[in-house]
């Protein structure tokens, strides 16, 4: 268990199953400068005001509870462990560079506003327990499934003037 007012992890290995930042942020940087360029947070739960993950390669996440979330990969996919939940009532910005996929389709996810970008030939899959607001989205294929908790409506709204650009198929189940 790693705990603090703000937590910065810059490369190396994390030997913990929980990172908690009370009132602060969690920042994880894997820039390939002598450290692993892929971020694998399998089995690691994170709780903070803001979670910021920057990676040269793929990023795999587990449970995240944060006000805002930013995940940026230069050349790698973004996915999550099965059975985990990402709860972010604020803004989630997800960028999978190199036309890689984003697969965050678990039923326990609860996003406020989601922004997806930087790829035109990839598949973006988002699952949400209830309602969601769409910001700017750039994708090859976009799959959105809301109202997955079965108890609340999965309303989908968008931010005015935020373009949604999908070159292939868009599937929205609300």
Protein topology:
Elements: E1 2-4, E2 7-10, E3 18-21, E4 25-30, E5 39-40, E6 45-55, E7 59-61, E8 64-73, E9 78-80, E10 86-96, E11 102-104, E12 110-117, E13 123-127, E14 132-139, E15 141-145, E16 156-158, E17 164-166, E18 170-173
Polypeptide structure, described:
This protein has strands spanning 2-4, 7-10, 18-21, 25-30, 39-40, 45-55, 59-61, 64-73, 78-80, 86-96, 102-104, 110-117, 123-127, 132-139, 141-145, 156-158, 164-166, 170-173. The protein is globular and about 35 Å long. The strands form two sheets. Strands 1, 2, 3, 4, 6, 8, 10, 12, 14, 16 and 17 form an eleven-stranded parallel sheet that branches. With 174 residues, it is an all-beta fold. The protein starts with a strand and ends with a strand.
The H/E string reads EEEEEEEEEEEEEEEEEE
* Helical residue percent band: under 10%
Query: How many angstroms does the end-to-end distance come to?
Result: 37 Å
Q: β content, as a range?
A: over 45%
Mean pLDDT: 80
Rg (CA only): 15 Å
Sheet having the most strands? 11 strands, parallel
Shape: globular
Overall structural class, as computed from helix and strand content, comes to: mainly beta
* Tally of individual helices: 0
């Amino acid at each position: 268990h790693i705990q603090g007012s703000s937590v910065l992890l810059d490369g190396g290995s994390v030997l913990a199953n929980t990172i908690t930042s009370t009132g602060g942020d969690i920042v994880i940087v894997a820039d390939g400068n002598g450290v692993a360029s892929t971020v694998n947070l399998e089995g690691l739960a994170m709780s903070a005001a803001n979670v910021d993950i920057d990676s040269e390669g793929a990023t795999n996440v587990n449970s995240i509870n944060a006000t805002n979330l930013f995940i940026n990969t230069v050349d790698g996919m973004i996915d999550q462990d099965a059975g985990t939940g990402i709860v972010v009532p604020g803004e989630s910005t997800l960028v999978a560079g190199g036309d890689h996929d984003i697969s965050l389709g678990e039923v326990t996810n609860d996003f406020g506003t989601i922004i997806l970008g930087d790829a035109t030939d990839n598949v973006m899959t988002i699952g949400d327990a209830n309602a969601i607001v769409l910001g700017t989205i750039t994708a090859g294929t976009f799959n959105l499934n809301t109202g997955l908790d079965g108890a609340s409506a999965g309303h989908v709204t968008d931010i005015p003037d935020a373009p949604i650009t999908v070159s292939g198929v868009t599937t929205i189940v609300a």
